[in-house]
Write a structure and sequence with these properties.
The complex is a heterodimer of chains A (326) and B (646). With 326 residues, chain A is α+β, with helices and mostly antiparallel strands. Chain A is built from ten helices and twelve strands. In chain A, helix 3 packs antiparallel against helix 4 (67-103). Chain A starts with a helix and ends with a helix. By secondary structure, chain B is mainly alpha-helical. Chain B has helices spanning 19-30, 35-40, 45-74, 84-118, 127-149, 174-202, 215-246, 260-294, 301-314, 330-342, 344-360, 367-389, 392-398, 402-432, 438-464, 481-511, 549-552, 592-609, 612-629, 633-645; strands at 569-573, 580-585. In chain B, strands 1-2 form a two-stranded antiparallel sheet. In chain B, helix 18 (592-609) runs antiparallel to helix 19. The chains are: A alpha+beta (326), B mainly alpha (646). Chains A and B meet through helix 3 and helix 4 of A and helix 4, helix 10, helix 11, helix 12 and helix 13 of B.
Chain lengths: 326, 646
């Protein structure tokens, strides 16, 4: 987990459209490079023409509109318009072929994930033909390197947008409309996604991590996620579980294997295995978790989680319990 | 002035008047009423235009202050200057103010001031409606800001996407305030467009055929038609939204068979043309300035006109490029990609024509011309990024990021605000009779130009590095801090340049060099009027024989004689060839447009709080319109007699 944390802290590379790590992002980056280069050339040419037109040396008595010169100018302007049209047409053709490559349907063996946007966190679900094997987690997607991942995008409240720039462009999550996209991570790493559609108060703090790992470790992760939560082994953690189940926590969160089954907030069955809390905005450390439980409104004003006044001993027990949820 | 071409025959029994007599009588007839009541009942397009421009500029300053607060908040990561609630209100206010209360109104305002002067008319076609449009706009804008200061400012963005803006996720009155503000501005924009279309079509000076019309007038004509076709969409959208929120309809509620995407289609079918509604008049400013400061007509008049008309049409075929990431099928999206790229062609035509004009002319580098040169550089950058984001695969990466923020500020500030500042410097002497200071003007230009690039150029990179729009803060680990700080420094530079402009205006109003009628040696008719123009604009309605009347007749313009001077009478001409068609009795100043606007405001504002507002407001509005249309004594009798005679 510390490796994951470290990777998260190297943000600039982990969250950039210019460091593609998947086929779609690579296509977009290729388009950007070619269009950027063309734009620089055309900009320099037009500015040179403008500055020359403005500052060229003029004969003392140049006639203003001279018919012969006007005709020559007409030809030059027509040629410039013609070149513009050709450049634009080239762009159009390359766009459309790039668009076909990006939107091609994913293969049959693609991993299927359902991502549901909530104000302001992400619910992630891995489905299976056997419902008991479904995995629900939050704010973190694990994927195997080199395999297509088909993501179904849903929203139950307002419009959000799913965007891991290193892997692919964004797609909106619209209530009442089903959207989907696919991506593929070509190299292992942790990539960040931020919500890209303004979704209210805490739009700024709604991120998600995409953890691309080797197929083996992905399989291990998935198997482990299917487990229910550990039963508390000592008195401190059992006290913690008691606190969880008897306080407001259980009203919104679920922990598989316990009576807590509400799906209003993120599923916490494997909370301790996740790198961040508060939707990808706080490293998952004991101190941060304690601060978050006691007063989430200070960290993320407007978040749906209320402050919790817990006895210091209870809080310690709760934290100890939550830390066992690997 | 010579009195040739007596196009309108004398009325029988009236002796021809001497020039001095004409001026004396016109002064009496068109004199503004004294006092506060006179000020409130003015129907002169120049006094209303000035109020309009000043009001819009005040909103520009307010929007600018909001931008400054946002840049201060984003200057460093996890900054605690303002929280999400304030930030979300402020970015919504910034967008709403700049689009609905500044950009469109200021373009209309300048048009309402200049168009009648440029076409040799005495006033706009419907002067009372013009006053009504201004008051409605003023009340709408004031309402928004009053509510903002009462902490009821809208906070769902200037685009107010549902379901976020719907009743479930935005309870309270904030979004209602937004929807009604939009309704106010829709009315004033529609009023201005009707006003301008009729004024341009029916009140041009004799001889100003359509193909002799100044390019600026063409730009306002195209813009007005665009407003006419674009505004009804946002009007219905905002009405649906208000109904969803206030009376429980379900236009946008997917749970009840509504559709969240319907809002986006309606909004952007207006919202994209809106950008060109702002940009097309700026093309007109640029053409006017280029012609004057290169001392030759703009090269390629037909191409320029057709480009503006083409832009007007194509602007309605682009709206879906705001929705490329909503899951539009690829085939559908490629149509909009093609249209979005195609619109670059008319813009290219105009830029090439201006460069040709400058090349073959003799440029003078006064401040308005500097703003035009700056416009070309900035608009090119905004245009290139516009072509880039027309590409769906690339757009999915930068959509809703700071790349887009950079793009449209280049287009809107570079493409519209720079020409507008050029226009301020260019027409200020006409409006006030005094020149703006050139040296301060250069400071204004260079600070603005540098500040603009320092603020917005880094945002392209921020977007590519993954920074989404509309975020009140970001984590230090993202590495976005440096570029954001740079952008904030740029914003300070822009603020300084605007202060320089304000100082320049304040100083020049008192001690500026006296301008005279035609200080720049320009070609269009507004420069034939005195600076500032008299209430009747021209003592004699000019007759036009070419596209550049002032260059053709630098000393004296041919003029029409025979129009009545003892009553407010204007000449109506034919649509295509501007041949004299009829005389028209022009309305006197009246307070009723103000009363009708107050009734409109009561209707819209009370509606937010109670459905009875519809009843109360409608009754008041009905009474106000009755008062407005009530036949009045002698004028009415006279009008009936004229109608009986003809």
């Amino acid at each position: 987990m510390s490796a994951v944390l470290q990777a998260v802290l190297q943000f600039p590379g982990a969250h950039s459209a210019l460091k593609p790590a998947g086929p779609q992002a690579r296509i977009a980056e290729g388009l950007w490079n070619s269009m950027y280069a063309t734009a620089i050339v055309v900009f320099l040419l037009v500015m040179a023409a403008l500055l020359w037109a403005a500052f060229r040396r003029r004969r003392a008595e140049e006639p203003a509109p001279d018919p012969a010169r006007e005709r020559r100018m007409r030809r030059v302007v027509a040629a410039a318009v013609g070149i513009t049209t050709i450049v634009l047409f080239t762009f159009l053709v390359s766009d459309i072929s790039a668009g076909r490559a990006v939107t091609a349907t994913p293969g049959k063996d693609a991993i299927q994930i359902i991502v549901t946007g909530h104000q302001w966190w992400w619910e992630v679900q891995y489905r299976d033909s056997v419902p008991q094997r479904w995995v629900t987690t939050a704010n973190e997607i694990h994927v195997p390197v080199g395999r297509q991942v088909a993501v179904e995008l849903r929203s139950t409240d307002v419009i959000h947008s799913f965007w891991p720039p290193n892997l692919t462009g964004k797609r909106d999550l619209i209530p009442g409309n089903e959207n989907s996209l696919w991506f593929q991570a070509d190299s292992a790493g942790v990539y960040r996604a931020e919500c890209a559609e303004y979704c209210g108060h805490e739009h700024a703090k709604m991120a998600l991590l995409v953890v691309a790992q080797s197929p083996d470790s992905f399989a291990r992760w998935l198997t482990q996620q299917r487990d229910t939560a550990h039963t508390p082994a000592d008195s401190l953690t059992s006290r913690g579980q008691e606190v969880f189940l008897s306080s407001a926590c259980a009203m919104c969160h679920s922990i598989a294997g316990t009576p807590a089954g509400s799906r209003v907030g993120p599923d916490l069955t494997h909370l301790a295995g996740r790198a961040t809390i508060a939707a990808g905005t706080l490293p998952n450390t004991r101190g941060n978790l304690a601060g978050w439980i006691v007063d989430p409104q200070r960290i993320k004003p407007g978040a749906r989680m209320p402050p919790n006044q817990l006895d210091p001993a209870d809080l310690r027990a709760l934290l100890a319990y939550l830390e066992t949820l690997r | 002035m010579s009195l040739t071409v007596p196009a309108v025959p004398h009325e029988p029994g009236r002796a021809p008047e001497s020039a001095a007599e004409v001026v004396g009588r016109l002064e009496d007839t068109w004199r503004a009423r004294p006092g506060l009541r006179g000020w409130l009942s003015s129907v002169d397009h120049k006094s209303i235009g000035k109020r309009y421009i000043i009001t819009a500029f005040v909103f520009f300053l307010l929007g600018g202050i909001e931008a400054a607060v946002m840049r201060a908040q984003l200057a460093r990561p996890e900054n605690g200057l303002i929280g999400p609630d304030a930030y979300n209100q402020i970015f919504t206010m910034h967008g709403t103010t700049m689009m609905f209360l500044f950009a469109v109104p200021v373009m209309d305002a300048v048009g309402l001031y200049l168009v009648p002067l440029m076409i040799g008319g005495r006033n706009v076609a419907f002067p009372r409606l013009n006053a009504y449009g201004y008051w409605v706009y003023l009340f709408g804008g004031a309402f928004l800001y009053v509510m903002f200061f009462l902490n009821t400012g809208p906070d769902t963005g200037w685009f107010s996407y549902v379901p976020l803006a719907g009743p479930e996720f935005s309870p309270g009155k904030r979004v209602d305030v937004w929807a009604q503000t939009v309704t106010f501005t829709e009315i004033s924009a529609l009023v201005a467009s009707v006003e301008l279309i009729v004024t341009i079509f029916k009140t041009r000076a004799p001889g100003m055929t359509l193909n002799r019309m100044p390019l600026y007038v063409w730009s306002m004509l195209v813009q007005s038609f665009m407003v006419l076709f674009a505004m009804p969409w946002v009007a219905s959208a905002s009405m649906f939204l208000a109904m969803d929120r206030l009376v429980g309809t379900h236009f946008f509620n997917p749970a009840e068979g509504g559709d969240a995407l319907l809002w986006q289609h309606l909004f952007w079918f207006f919202g994209h043309p809106e950008v060109y509604i702002i940009f097309v008049p700026a093309l007109g400013f640029v053409s006017s300035i280029v012609a004057t400061f290169t001392r030759r007509p703009v090269f390629g008049y037909p191409a320029m006109v057709l480009s503006m008309v083409a832009t007007g049409f194509l602007a309605f075929g682009l709206w879906v490029h705001h929705m490329f990431v909503t899951g539009i099928p690829q085939l559908g999206a490629s149509f909009f990609t093609a249209a979005s790229m195609m619109i670059a062609i008319p813009s290219g035509v105009q830029i090439f024509c201006w460069i040709a004009t400058i090349w073959s002319g003799r440029p003078r580098f006064a401040v308005p011309f500097l703003f035009v040169l700056g416009f070309v550089a900035l608009f090119l950058i905004g245009g290139f990024t516009g072509v880039m984001i027309a590409s769906v695969p690339f757009d999915t990466q930068v959509h809703d990021t700071f790349f887009i923020v950079a793009h449209f500020h280049y287009v809107l500030i570079g493409g519209a605000v720079f020409p507008l500042f050029g226009a301020f410097y260019y027409w200020f002497p006409k409006v006030t009779g005094r020149m703006l200071d050139e040296r301060l003007g250069r400071w204004n230009f260079w600070l603005f130009f540098i500040g603009m690039n320092v603020t917005f150029f880094p945002m392209h990179e921020l977007g590519l590095l993954g920074m989404p729009r509309r975020v009140y803060t970001y984590l230090p680990e993202t590495g976005w801090g440096g570029l954001n700080l740079l952008a904030s420094i740029g914003a300070v530079t822009i603020a300084v340049s605007v202060v320089v402009f304000l100082v320049n205006v304040a100083r020049s109003l008192r001690v500026g060099e006296a301008a005279g009628a035609n200080p720049w040696g320009a070609d269009t008719l507004e420069w034939a009027a005195t600076s500032p123009p008299r209430p009747y604009n021209f003592a004699f309605t000019p007759v036009v024989e070419s596209r550049e009347p002032m260059w053709q007749h630098p000393a004296e313009l041919p003029a029409v004689e025979g129009l009545r001077t003892d009553v407010r009478e204007v000449l109506v001409t034919t649509l295509l060839d501007a041949e004299p068609d009829s005389r028209h009795r022009h309305p006197e100043p009246t307070i009723w447009p103000l009363i009708a606007a107050i009734a409109t405001a009561v209707l819209f504002i009370t509606l937010i709080f109670t459905p009875w507002g519809a009843v109360i407001g409608t009754v008041l509005l009905f009474l106000a319109f009755v008062g407005w249309a009530w036949p009045r004594g002698k004028d009415h009798q006279e009008q009936l007699m004229i109608e009986a005679e003809s």
